[in-house]
Design a protein that fits this description.
278 residues, mainly alpha, three-stranded antiparallel sheet
């Protein structure tokens, strides 16, 4: 009786499984198939497959009145396994065609540098992973150690690689699809088991305008210059001694020397005429 009860519970699950399989097949054959629908239904199908497997194990472990009855049930179990495998192959082939159709070539002029920047933190495991899975979003560097940046693509090129598909996740992260795959950006906070330290994962883009990477952190890039950088240490040393000897004088019982003012200074503009206006 227990086996019969399990079989009765299994029937609606198998019916739903078959219905979803047929729905995915029909969607793939459409002229403009809905990719999100296919991903969502495939996720549901995998969940139903897990439920089927749980019932199948219990049913196959129960007592059978004959070997023929057991073989019949075993064939049913294998049939649904094959259905899942076939639909997965169809979906994989569908998305492979979609990617092949969207492939574009972009010519880039890259600047070679031994070190571009420090490692970038990879996406850490968390509830956002399951949310992305439900939306059919797959990223390749989840939980890996911080990886070295080998190619840095500027915003002037990245725009041409974006497909326009964007998903805002519940935790504040944003998943953006490009021709190279999905990129997750934004900020997440989580607490490690060792300490209550909140870790933030940030993705920052930089656009390199010059072959000299050092200019990224130099003040000259902001228009702030210092004349002493244009002079060698020896020249500065000589200038200090020269200034000392020229300005040193004795006044009564003490020596005086003028302050080392910067001579190479820009003349400040006057706003006198602006101040005169009403």
């Amino acid at each position: 009786m227990e086996r019969e009860a399990l079989i009765q519970r299994l029937k609606p699950i198998r019916a739903s499984f078959t219905r979803i399989c047929n729905g995915i097949k029909l969607e793939i054959e459409k002229e403009n198939p809905d990719e999100e629908f296919i991903r969502s239904k495939l996720t549901t199908l995998e969940r139903l497959s897990d439920e089927l497997r749980s019932y199948d194990i219990q049913i196959l472990d129960s007592e059978y009145s004959s070997e023929e009855q057991f073989n019949s049930e075993w064939e049913s179990v294998e049939e649904y396994k094959e259905k899942l495998d076939l639909i997965k192959v169809k979906v994989e082939m569908f998305f492979s065609r979609q990617i092949a159709q969207s492939v574009a070539s972009v010519r880039l002029n890259l600047l070679e540098q031994l070190k571009i920047c420090g490692p970038v933190t990879s996406l850490q495991p968390g509830p956002w992973i399951e949310e992305m899975k439900q939306k059919g979003i797959t990223v390749s560097d989840v939980g890996r150690k911080d990886l070295k940046i080998e190619i840095l693509i500027g915003a002037d090129v990245a725009g041409a690689l974006l497909t326009g598909k964007v998903h805002k996740l519940e935790n504040g992260l944003v998943a953006v699809e490009s021709l190279l795959g999905w990129t997750v950006m934004g900020r997440i906070n989580y607490y490690t088991s060792e300490s209550n330290v909140s870790m933030s994962s940030l993705i920052t883009s930089m656009l390199v305008h010059s072959s000299d990477i050092e200019n990224l952190w130099k003040l000259e890039a902001l228009g702030i210059t210092d004349s002493k950088e244009n002079r060698s240490d020896v020249e500065l040393q000589e200038a200090v001694w020269d200034h000392f000897h020229k300005t040193l004088k004795r006044s009564e019982d003490r020596y005086e020397i003028s302050l080392p003012w910067i001579n190479e200074k820009d003349k400040l503009p006057s706003n006198r005429e602006v101040a005169k206006k009403d």
